[in-house]
């Protein structure tokens, strides 16, 4: 029998469960190794976090970008407005702010403000859940500290770099200031609309009160504005403002800071708002400045924070002389004690630059810009679009005649009738041609024309010239019964002045940031909407409006230069839309509530137009409208519509599209060398006579 040998050394211990151990030992070793790496990584992360906090603690916060002031410049480089001037920000201590403002702001912006250290993790989770359920970004999770960091030191661009900086500055703010100090800074720098920064400035502007005196209702109203000043300003949209106030009151109720009785009473309270701008001078071109802000923010996508505090420069098309003239002539043209309103917009037809804009008689009392109001009927000032369509049709010319008499028109395959009337029920009761009809604004002739060429064609023509307002193809369209804004009318008439080329209106030439880098540059868009010949013939016809027998003849002595245009009068609206080669202007007068105009009130549009045009262009030498190819000017007999030869008893110089001039002759040819008539082939001679006779008239008037 063999005996076991004695081995040196310690004998290894046999596992209790050898099979299980052999099976799971490799996995255990891997887990153990993973735990070591995890512990090391966590230790490293803690060290990095601690190091970062220590580093941030030792670093100073950057200079706040809030100190940058943005500017708006006119065409000459003069400052016409600044966004966020120093006087618009009035800092106060947190103790001098109504507790209702504090409670309302925290309830709607950051209800856990005093419970977190700059980042609200519960709020983030709740926002994620809401957004996932609604498949949209309905709820945000930025704390007041994050918003303050962003507003003080950063732009609102959506980049990871900006978000990282925001997080760093948020931590620094929380380490450097107490919660009350952060809240005080936030309430003193947030934008409340209409140039007011900080709760003190807002309280004074909206309610003429100090921030410490604000009631619950006033506080809930103001606390809702910073989310979107243009949407929640009570001056711009009271319904949105009240809806937002209700949301804030409900949030305060849920947070336990007010009772349901107080919430109901606050919502029902009628607030006494200050008249916007009553406390300070609104400055130069206020309606234009509002329009620039709208274009920059809503159309070009410039962030409001950048606009208000980013130090940008906006170069505009405003002509300071033209603007000052526009404001002056409207102030002189409408009596101070009258409730009648006026609007004027002037555009350079060559490039689309908006040179002047006045949207109402008194900006302080009413900020509504009537230049863009699509609620006013243009009346007969719409007729040039009709007669342009007639000229383009090929079967109507300036000599086409209809009888001016009371007429009942039938349309819609005989199912409907339309009976237009002339102003004052005055009719010539004879055949008249297009020039006479346009100059005297004969409505019977206009409806005859639209029945001849078709209302659909007239709408197409208006669209080509820049009129976007809704229109229906009915006979009354000829009389301007569908509302059109003064802005559209000035832009469309500019097409006639610019040889048939429609230049899209421009108000902002370019925008630069505080470093001079271009953020936006206007693209000049223009197209040949109608031929140059068609535009010139219409211009020739519209010049008659300012001649004897024309509806604007009474102001012709004011204007010492070639001018064309058209008046328009409805029971509630009066217009004069006209142009020179350098400037197209639309003037409207009327009442906001569709009150009927007296004869004297309706006559105020024409003098405003005439004085503005002459004074705005006082330093510009008079220029004739250039005569393009495709135009023939001949002497005609207005009674018969024939070419007028030397001994024809009646003679009138008339302009035609080449090929549409008459061929039949009245009278006998004049002797050689006499100032007789010329045939269609003598268009150049007639052009020279027309140019010389017109120049003499303009010089001697």
Summarize the structure.
With 701 residues, the protein is of the alpha+beta class.
Spans of at least 5 consecutive residues with low confidence: 135-139, 672-693, 695-701
Number of E-type strands: 20
**Helix content, binned percent:** 40-55%
Mean pLDDT across all residues, rounded?
A: 84
- From the spread of the alpha carbons, the general shape counts as elongated
- Residue fraction in strands: 5-15%
Number of helices: 23
The main pleated sheet reads as: 5 strands, mixed
Query: How far apart lie the N and C ends?
Result: 151 Å
**How are strands sequenced across the largest beta sheet?**
2-1-3-11-12
Structural class: alpha+beta
Alpha-carbon Rg, integer = 37 Å
Structure description:
The chain has 701 residues and is α+β, with helices and mostly antiparallel strands. It has a five-stranded mixed beta sheet. Strands 5-4-16-15-14 form a five-stranded antiparallel beta sheet, with helices on both faces. Strand 15 and strand 16 (584-590) form a beta hairpin. Helix 8 packs across helix 10 and helix 8 (216-223) crosses helix 11. It is elongated and about 130 Å long.
């Amino acid at each position: 029998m063999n005996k076991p040998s004695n081995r040196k050394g310690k004998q290894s211990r046999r596992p209790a469960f050898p099979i299980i151990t052999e099976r799971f030992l490799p996995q255990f070793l891997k887990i153990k190794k993973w735990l070591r790496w995890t512990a090391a990584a966590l230790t490293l992360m803690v060290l990095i976090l601690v190091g970062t906090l220590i580093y941030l603690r030792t670093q100073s916060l950057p200079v706040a970008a809030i100190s940058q002031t943005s500017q708006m410049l006119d065409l000459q480089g003069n400052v016409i407005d600044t966004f966020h001037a120093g006087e618009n920000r009035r800092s106060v201590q947190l103790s001098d702010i109504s507790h209702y403002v504090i409670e309302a702001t925290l309830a709607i912006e950051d209800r856990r403000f005093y419970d977190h250290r700059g980042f609200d993790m519960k709020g983030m989770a709740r926002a994620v859940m809401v957004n996932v359920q609604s498949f949209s970004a309905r709820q945000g999770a930025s704390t007041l500290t994050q918003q303050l960091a962003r507003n003080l030191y950063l732009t609102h661009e959506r980049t990871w770099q900006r978000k990282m900086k925001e997080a760093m500055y948020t931590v620094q703010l929380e380490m450097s200031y107490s919660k009350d100090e952060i809240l005080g800074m936030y309430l003193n720098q947030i934008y409340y609309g209409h140039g007011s920064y900080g709760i003190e400035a807002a309280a004074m502007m909206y309610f003429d009160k100090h921030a410490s005196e604000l009631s619950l209702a006033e506080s809930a109203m103001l606390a809702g504005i910073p989310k979107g000043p243009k949407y929640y300003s009570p001056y711009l949209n009271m319904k949105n403002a009240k809806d937002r106030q209700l949301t804030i009151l409900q949030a305060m109720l849920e947070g336990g800071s007010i009772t349901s009785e107080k919430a109901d009473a606050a919502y029902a309270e009628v607030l006494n708002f200050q008249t916007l701008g009553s406390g300070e001078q609104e400055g130069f071109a206020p309606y234009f400045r509002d329009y620039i802000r709208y274009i920059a923010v809503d159309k070009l996508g410039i962030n409001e924070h950048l606009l208000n505090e980013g130090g940008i420069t906006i170069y505009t098309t405003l002509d300071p002389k033209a603007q000052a003239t526009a404001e002056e002539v409207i102030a002189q043209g409408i009596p101070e004690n009258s409730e009648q309103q006026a609007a004027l917009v002037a555009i350079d037809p060559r490039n689309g630059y908006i040179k002047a804009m006045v949207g109402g008689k008194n900006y302080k009392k009413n900020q509504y810009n009537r230049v863009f109001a699509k609620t006013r009927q243009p009346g007969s000032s719409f007729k040039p679009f009709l007669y342009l369509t007639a000229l383009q049709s090929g079967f109507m010319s300036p000599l086409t005649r209809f009888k001016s008499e009371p007429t009942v028109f039938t349309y819609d395959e005989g199912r409907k009738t339309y009976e237009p009337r002339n102003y004052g029920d005055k009719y010539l009761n004879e055949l008249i041609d297009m020039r006479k009809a346009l100059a005297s604004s004969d409505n019977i002739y206009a409806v005859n024309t639209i029945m001849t060429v078709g209302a659909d064609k007239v709408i197409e023509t208006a669209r080509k010239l820049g009129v976007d307002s809704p229109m229906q193809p009915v006979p009354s369209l000829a009389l301007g019964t569908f509302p059109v804004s003064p802005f559209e009318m000035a832009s469309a008439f500019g097409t006639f002045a610019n040889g048939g080329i429609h230049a899209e209106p421009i108000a902002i030439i370019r925008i630069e940031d505080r470093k001079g880098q271009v953020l936006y540059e206007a693209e000049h868009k223009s197209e040949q909407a109608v031929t140059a010949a068609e535009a010139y013939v219409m211009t020739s016809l519209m010049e008659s409006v300012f001649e004897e027998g024309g509806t604007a003849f009474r102001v012709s002595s004011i204007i010492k230069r070639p001018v064309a245009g058209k008046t328009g009068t409805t029971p509630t609206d009066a217009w004069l839309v006209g142009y020179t080669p350098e400037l197209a202007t639309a003037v409207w007068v009327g009442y906001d509530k569709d009150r009927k105009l007296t004869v004297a009130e309706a006559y105020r549009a024409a003098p405003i137009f005439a004085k503005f045009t002459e004074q705005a262009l006082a330093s510009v030498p008079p220029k004739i409208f250039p005569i393009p190819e495709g135009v023939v000017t001949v002497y005609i007999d207005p009674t018969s519509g024939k070419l007028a030869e030397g001994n024809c008893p009646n003679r009138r110089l008339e302009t035609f599209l080449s090929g549409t001039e008459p061929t039949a002759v009245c009278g006998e040819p004049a002797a050689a060398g006499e100032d007789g008539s010329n045939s269609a082939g003598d268009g150049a001679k007639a052009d020279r006579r027309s140019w010389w006779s017109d120049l003499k008239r303009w010089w001697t008037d």
